[in-house]
Design brief:
globular
Amino acid sequence: MTSWLPGTLEGTGPLYLRLADRIESDIDNGLLAPGEKLPPQRNLAFDIGVTIGTVGRAYALLHERGLVSGEVGRGTYILERNGLSPAAPAPVMAPAGIGTRHVQAPDGLLRMDSTAATDVGQSHAIEAYLAAITRDHPHEIANYTRTLPEHWLAAGADWLAAPGWRPQEAGIVPALGGHPAILAAITAITNPGERILIEEVSYASVARSASLAGRRITTVALDEQGIIPDDLERVCAREHPRMLFLMPGIQNPTLAVMPEDRRHAVVEIARRYDLWLIEDVIFGSLVEDRIPSLAELAPERTFRVGGMSKSVAAGIRGGWISCPPGYTARIHAAHKLLTGGMPFLLAELAARLVLDGEAGRIRQAVREEIAVREAIARQTLAGFEFSSHPHCPFMWITVPEPWQSGTLKKAAENDGILIDDEDEFKSGRTERAYHRIRVGFTVPGERDAVTRGFTTLRELMRGGNAVYDSYS
């Protein structure tokens, strides 16, 4: 094994990218020869003073570039420049800046890195609705969608409603899921170069997508109750941001629920600094958040986004966004430009499911199944530290010493399970280490598979130094 160290990592861009570039440069210059073994991730992280997640992402990027090969337990080796041998293919990981997940999930692994709605037999109801729509609307299905029927807007208002509050139907825009709705609001309201705020750990695909669209990202600290108002105030005064994306209901991945007084504080700060708000309630509809929503407290500046992916069926791409008065047309146009437009079949399906009450019935069945699976997970992980909720489709688990979240993710994959480490949810560069993993449990088809997955994770975490060293 080489005693190689990278020296200084000066420059701009993410630290893991600079580390990968330095290793590639030293390979090109002959300082690292084919067949040499790179230092173990844990050792290199300690020697250069970074997190093991940073080194792990750099090594994964080198795999993607075809510069190294290796596997969990063996180490990482420099390859000849003509590429990988067939026996040791590089994992197909997401491009730099997109995330830490595989672009295509490997076959045969248990998917616990997703929170899509559980299969509770909803396909049978959806089949009947699709048959009726194709029978009733053959011309619309064959054509582009040029209008927004009133019942599509009514369905969106119903789905985005909160106890005692319902958005105006005139402010609803149907969307191809929550993510395109969020991006429509960002691109319609802000300009390239303007700053977007997001929680330090969150649904980080928003930060990555906004960066791709030329917006600058700044993170805001959060605690067990969500965004910290004092830090939000500090960042607003210093950075002059244009928009804030947050999840005040069930926050992903921490499960924080923002209390009412903190929601009022966020609204007051937003008004003081003329800050637009995007309120993502994709998980909030599962847990029945009864605290007043940001859209209710600040209707003049809040875009409220929700959809069906976690509670009904991810594959139908049903979503809506409610807009402040006067902004509906702009958001509709932005969504159309970003996505190519709303397909009639999916929009009509989502609307019928909501208005007929079928979406609500499916959601209740999904909630009940989540409760059973959460109880399985809670029992299996008894004695470990984690955050969970009976109606939330994932757990936020603290990894015990000596594990790092990235190393545990790799160990779990080696044992046949896909999970998410904390880096998947980091919205920007941060020195804070949460030492957490997020584990979803709704995609496995059977409850026995959920038990098996959590049992495997339990045994890995129980293994201590002996197990950890074999994966580092």
